[in-house]
Write a structure and sequence with these properties.
Helix 3 crosses helix 4 and helix 8 packs parallel to helix 9. 33% of the residues lie in helices and 24% in strands. By secondary structure, it is an alpha/beta fold. One of its GO terms (cellular component) is cytoplasm.
């Protein structure tokens, strides 16, 4: 029997730091308003002309993960890339990574599950390895939100939350089933798809031709929309459920959690879950204060920083959990 084990982690964030005070100069907001509602103090936004894209940021994170894993790019058997912000409508960024890294013609899969994207991508990679199909898989979560945000007072409820960045992990085959990823748990509830959505351009709604023909600067369909309170209420319920589902599937109690890394959607959500599970500050890792919500990149970014800080050690029970657009949500239980 096989499990998959994370043997390398990497990250990349743009150099450009955008503080809450910076945002107050371009929209009607302030540091107190943003901090109180989200816990965010600053985020990274790609500067025009920097050369950073969703794919290139993913490549930079991947290079770090490969080096730390102690393997060669030629050892990688498969690529899974999670993002909601690909460089192109198609093809997805997985193939761009394959080319940029000079990896042989292995398969490259793109995952479109937004905030839950990295958990879904981990689950795909984990099960490919468990079946024996592949040995070493590169998993990336990368996002470039800033170029598609409504950076006016009209869009402040969404635009102050999101940041850019990338994280990556190398998964490899682990003999036996006691170490590494023990299980993953995935869910969706499409009836709430339009509560957190970017409608255009979309083949079934408003395509590029429609937008150009209307030339309507008040059209909000190509900016993200979020029903914030509704999303929050659902998130705290689903986070709790899917974490408990993962623990119970492995015969564990909540007291077994050594490190919880939640998707960095909102610090208030993370704090609610922390309190509900009775976890200390040392048992939960958050970095949303520095980076904002980087959707599919948020968990690998936080996981990498927690590991770098020595907060995760061998034998720890590490729990990853996410909730987001779709609605989709999931968890991953790891014996590190």
């Amino acid at each position: 029997m096989y499990n998959s084990k994370i043997i390398g982690l990497g990250k990349y964030v743009p150099d450009n730091v955008v503080t809450n005070d910076d945002l107050s100069k371009i929209m009607d907001t302030n540091d107190e308003w943003i901090t109180e509602r989200t816990g965010i103090k600053e985020r990274r936004w790609v500067k025009e002309g920097s050369g950073d894209t969703t794919a290139t940021m993913g490549v930079k994170a991947a290079k770090m993960a490969i080096e730390r894993a102690g393997i060669s790019k030629d050892d990688i058997d498969f690529i899974v890339f999670a993002t909601l912000s690909p460089d192109m409508y198609f093809p997805g960024p997985g193939v761009q990574v394959q080319h940029a890294l000079g990896i042989k013609t292995v398969g490259a899969l793109d995952v479109r599950n937004q905030c839950s994207g990295f958990i879904y991508a981990l689950s795909v990679a984990d099960n490919f390895i468990k079946t024996g199909m592949y040995k070493n898989i590169l998993v990336i979560g990368s996002e470039l939100h800033s170029h598609g945000l409504d950076k006016t007072t009209r869009g402040r409820g969404v635009s102050v939350i999101f940041g850019d960045g990338a994280g990556a992990a190398i998964l490899t085959r682990e003999e036996g089933n006691k170490k590494g990823i023990l299980s993953t748990h995935l869910h969706s509830q499409g009836e709430h798809a339009e509560e957190l959505v970017l409608k255009a351009p979309g083949m079934g709604t408003r395509w590029v031709n429609d937008i150009l023909a209307d030339n309507n600067e008040d059209d909000e369909s190509y900016f993200p929309y979020m029903n914030g309170q509704f999303v929050f209420k659902n998130a705290v319920v689903r986070f709790s459920e899917v974490i408990m589902e993962g623990l119970m599937a492995n015969g564990l109690q909540k007291e077994a959690i050594d490190m919880l890394i939640p998707h960095q959607a909102n610090l208030r959500i993370a704090q609610f879950i922390q309190n509900k599970f009775g976890l200390t500050n040392d048992q939960v890792f958050n970095n949303i204060q520095k980076y904002g919500n980087t959707t599919a990149a948020s968990i690998p970014l936080a996981l990498t920083e927690a590991w770098e800080a020595g907060k995760i050690k061998e034998g720890d029970t590490v729990v990853l959990a996410a909730f987001g657009s779709g609605f989709t949500w999931g968890s991953c239980i790891i014996n590190w």
